[in-house]
Amino acid sequence: MSEQWYDQADTGLAGAGRVTVLSRADVRRCLATIDPVEIVRRTLARHDRGESLLPAEAYLRWENSRGAYTRSIGMPGAVGPHHGMKIINASVSNPAAGLERAGGLGLCFDAETARVTSIMEAGLLSAVRTAAVSAVGVDVTGFGGAGSLAIVGCGAQGRMHAALLSRRLPALRAVSLHDRDPAVAHRLADLLSRDDLEVTVHDKARDAVGAGEIAVFTTTADEGYVTPDWTRPGALLVNVSLGDLADETFLDAAALYVDDLDLVADNPRRPLGRLMRDGLVTRPSDGTAKPIDATLGGLLTGRYRSRGTARPHVVLNPFGMGVLDVALYGAIASQARHLGFGSLVDLG
Ligand SMILES: NC(=O)c1ccc[n+]([C@@H]2O[C@H](COP(=O)([O-])OP(=O)(O)OC[C@H]3O[C@@H](n4cnc5c(N)ncnc54)[C@H](O)[C@@H]3O)[C@@H](O)[C@H]2O)c1
């Protein structure tokens, strides 16, 4: 059929319309004008009060021509005036090809028409959102006075976590780093270098973990290897990768915190979801097995109480809530409009 035929068969009404496209540089400029940690904090609390929509995520996985784990995740969400979706794709073979492992798009929707109004680079914001959740988590679980921090896995997430937490922890004096690629850990050490901070790169993950009152796991490990005897007594283990902690490290935890119970329970491909599926870990107050103690939003609204630092260790397992990204996309899009950043594309 000809182009003219399609033209005649078309409705003649407005289609997708005009969309603002924000590059990573635009996103970075807008980020400098907002407080992402505060936005994440507010959105976690609103989520706890039932003021958000967070459907299950769509997950597509395949192996690329190198046999590497490759995937796409679609994460829609809505909070207040903000409706949107995160599309975050990744392949573990990307870094060897000089690409970031993960990359994607953030979409904002018009609340009335549901049209896409903005499209923005989402890789940087994904790291910012995830580090902001950890920052709120550190605070609300009672670890804001920590003097030492360990980062295991010093890629995109590890760098953003180190950068953000090292600015937000007033008593921080020592940072321990480990990456299976030592050059990556040394690059992060250079970034953190500051007179009042002792930064050590460890050859062994165990040595880094044992040195941290807070240990953040941002590797791509898919099998748990961090056992309870690795940890500093009373430490907070932030399991961002969802994969580094061995089952007994969850089961032995003095307190177990998550961001969203349904997301964790709906994903038995991740260790904590598998422990829930197998009946070894339950929702709060269930009483039949080891319970999850609280959600971050519930700690923020006062529905739950933190146990503070507790032995042998405390675990925070932030699954990753798309609605937090959507709240950030809304704030970035609004700043971009205000400051005149981005390019307008008319899709017709
Ligand atoms: N929970 C969440 O909300 C959330 C959000 C985004 C990303 N993530 C997860 O965070 C992790 C890191 O993501 P990224 O974008 O920084 O990846 P990345 O590839 O940029 O960095 C990962 C780093 O970990 C290192 N590494 C991998 N396995 C290791 C091991 N066993 N021991 C030591 N170092 C190891 C790699 O060398 C690399 O430097 C991924 O698992 C990702 O799925 C979680």
Automatic annotation (TrEMBL):
<dbReference type="InterPro" id="IPR036291">
    <property type="entry name" value="NAD(P)-bd_dom_sf"/>
</dbReference>
<dbReference type="InterPro" id="IPR003462">
    <property type="entry name" value="ODC_Mu_crystall"/>
</dbReference>
<dbReference type="GO" id="GO:0008473">
    <property type="term" value="F:ornithine cyclodeaminase activity"/>
</dbReference>
<keyword id="KW-0456">Lyase</keyword>
<dbReference type="InterPro" id="IPR023401">
    <property type="entry name" value="ODC_N"/>
</dbReference>
<dbReference type="Pfam" id="PF02423">
    <property type="entry name" value="OCD_Mu_crystall"/>
</dbReference>
<protein>
    <submittedName>
        <fullName>Ornithine cyclodeaminase</fullName>
        <ecNumber>4.3.1.12</ecNumber>
    </submittedName>
</protein>
